[in-house]
Amino acid sequence: MFTRCFNYLCKLVGSRDNNNNITNLTNLINNKECIKLRAIDMTNKKKNSKKNLLKFKLARKIMELRTNSNVPSDIKNQEEKSPHERFRDSKTLFVTDFSSFAWCELQQHYSLIAGGRKETLAMKNGSEIHKNLESQEHVIVQIPTYTREDSWGIKLYNLIFGIDSLFTNYKTRELPIFGFVSDLFVFGIIDQVEMKPVFDDISGDELLIISDTNISRDELIISDTKTRTKPYIPKKAPPSVKFQLMLYKKLFDELVQGTIDDEKIFQTLDLNPDLEFSNELANIIKISCKESEIKELNLRNLMKVVINRFRKVWKTSNVLEVNYKLQKDESDLGSIYFDYNENQLENYLKKTIKYWKGDRKPEGVPIEDAWKCQNCDFADNCEWRLNKIKECEQKKRAFKEITNGQH
Ligand code: SF4
Fold this sequence. Notes:
This protein is of the alpha/beta class. It has one domain. The chain has 15 helices and eight strands. A hairpin with a 5-residue loop joins strand 7 (319-326) and strand 8 (332-339). The protein is globular, with a radius of gyration of 25 Å. The structure holds iron/sulfur cluster (SF4).
């Protein structure tokens, strides 16, 4: 049924103000289907691809000239900027912009210069599995976007109705989340939040007796889905995944606390909160939200609905989950659970913020993690690795000279 609806609605996209479109969406909403919107960017596609090409050419030049001292001034100017200005236009950082540094900071830095990492087959298969899992929970409706405000409107819509589907389906997938880390705006998409009952003081056979009186509260469990080619789960979750999940929890809980500064968000992202959404998005919001909830269809009002929705939920569980699926058949391999550690996260974030603000250089891996360099795309030109090799050779030479002198 989901696939049928999806295909049908995809065909409808593109026809502006289509009455059928609205009727079908209304039916879906009345049937309590959980709708997720996906943006189709209609703005200046040609210009965008040209800009990307230039970015790629520049990145390649930087990589080629990295060992050459005659670096042209435009590249030097790029290198003088902080990574936040240079790679993210001083606007949105993603949760993975923090978590991926746990593997190797320098590798992440080189990938940013090169304009992203090559998509491997495993990565492609992984994102297919994510799409399948999402379409099991939500009907995906594609909506054309004509402004940056439209695109953010879609993110807020998905957040609002993601929270609603937690109460109707006890689960939501691909939930957008955002907030500030220090003064940097961060955005991410949580793979899954699930509402699970917690049973107090129950053991053994008592677990079989489930009644309302057993339920003390529902826990909101954040989890991330990882796919594997091997049919077993790793012994422990990698640090990058742990930091990713811990940061999701921090952002979610801060929205629950209601400390969100919407004006600061609009200013940071250079968005006009009073600009009306385009017809397609405005129509779907109109039929999805209660009239009393939103009057003028713009970011300012949609953000108010977000703030109200977060008043209904509570902080997420301290236990975080990494769930593993087998790539071959999408079967469940099991999960690893771990505890949220605030101190560990804060120290990690402090260190990573210094990189993004340009207050320190990225570091390569310590010698005990040198195995990571074996499969690194940047190994041939990595200054860190080349310096380490030089240092080792110098030490070997010095050791030889000492031992030769002794004989
Ligand atoms: S070669 Fe090693 S140190 Fe250099 S970027 Fe790759 S993983 Fe990091």
